[in-house]
Fold:
Amino acid sequence: MSEPERGIENTPGNVPEHDSGTTVAMIAEGLFFLNLFILPVVSFVILALLYLSQRNHESRLAQNHLKQAFAAASISTALFLPILLIVLNTGFKSFALLIAVEVYLVAVVTPFAIIAIFALLKAMSQQEYRYALIGKYLIKEE
Structure:
């Protein structure tokens, strides 16, 4: 007998196995989160490779999470790269650069981190999530 026939429900102690679409969605959201905090450029490159290889995934869940995570990571990386290049070329010799880094952390990383956490939680629970501001342009309503 399969689990639904025996009356076993989806409870926190009895979590069903994830399909490939859920796995792709979770990996995409996890890479977006890593891109914000731990490995900004490396995580973005891995996410871009995942996007290129899985963008036509049969699961709508995977496609939506992947598109949005890649778009948000592209935006945050595009805003981070000029700061990174200046730091690598000159170091923290300028007070204005230090202010730019702080503004980036407060204005970009914080809102994106909140979105990344919600999106990762939704991907883990096999639910779709629409990012604020950019999600409506990337997800087609059916």
Observations:
- The two ends are 35 Å apart (CA to CA).
- The chain is about 70% helix and 0% strand.
